[in-house]
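Example 317.
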Amino acid sequence: MRSYGTKRVLVTGGAGFLGSHLCGRLLDEGHEVLCVDNFFTGTRGNIQHLLDNHAFELLRHDITFPLYIEVDEIYNLACPASPVHYQHDPVQTTKTSVMGAINMLGLAKRLRAKILQASTSEVYGDPSVHPQTEDYWGNVNPIGIRSCYDEGKRCAETLFFDYHRQLALRIKVARIFNTYGPRMHPDDGRVVSNFIVQALKGKDITIYGDGSQTRSFCYVDDLVDGLVRLMGSDDSFTGPVNLGSQGEFTIRELAETVVELTGSKSAISYEALPSDDPKQRRPDNSLANEKLGWEPKVQLEAGLKRTIEYFEALLRS
Ligand code: NAD
Ligand code: UDP
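Predicted structure in complex with uridine-5'-diphosphate:
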């Protein structure tokens, strides 16, 4: 029998980078966690340390198909997040965002469960407003190579708000900005893991374009804390709310910092910039700060050091 205050929580995409950290955090708080994943980009290794915990359960399942289970809260994280992976099978990416949202919202409706959507700064596209505030509608190409992800996530947000208006579902929408940390896949393709793995292997650091494009990098523990705070916030607060770091760096600055922190001899090489690659990105975090009392704490260098340690150990093994 569950003790008072313990919730049954579903984490879709729970074997992925963010999902595995979220599962750990929820277990630490005493909840029962059901991790659902189809292992497209997630791995068993990410959750290996949780498998012996009696409060943790793992289910291999693709959320584009309906799911019949009993839970109190749902974190919907399932979706490949790296451009390389979401562009690998773009039709499946859109299906995961849209059909996955419909299935998880249907589950939440039947259970009257609270549901949180892991949305993204990509809903702002290549933004003409800087920093990005939640009331900015974005600048998104509907037919480009990033569209399967961007438009899929935008449609998922639409579904969340229609279920909220039409069926009074309790929803939470987080717009997550670039997040990094241990358990990113070494072949993930995203910039932080790419640069660290390249630096540790002494390979060229591949900057796409001239490296003047900017991103803000949030450490995973901070981000997970934001998600948990959002889920716990008052029912009247639905978001969308930005969750990301305020520090904005050019990709060239990131490359130089990684080379310095790893002590690598890697050279920097410049490659073609993929189409529709956003030129700048930084969240305005005022809303998260006001409504959730949330602010990222881990500075880029400290977070990179922890991530480098993780990849060093991984590559050694
Ligand atoms: P990830 O690729 O490591 O994790 C995604 C997980 O979802 C993987 O375990 C994958 O196997 C699983 N998955 C994919 N399709 C599925 C399906 N159809 N059914 C079941 N499981 C499926 O990525 P991540 O960085 O952990 O991202 C998690 C979520 O956060 C994603 O929804 C992503 O869009 C969002 N997000 C992440 C970032 C970031 O910087 N990490 C930024 C913005 C948004
Ligand atoms: N990038 C890069 N080299 C890499 C991987 C990515 O220069 O090896 C650039 C990419 O073009 C983008 C930025 O780094 O401008 C962030 O890319 P990522 O794929 O991590 O996430 P995005 O924010 O583009 O979704």
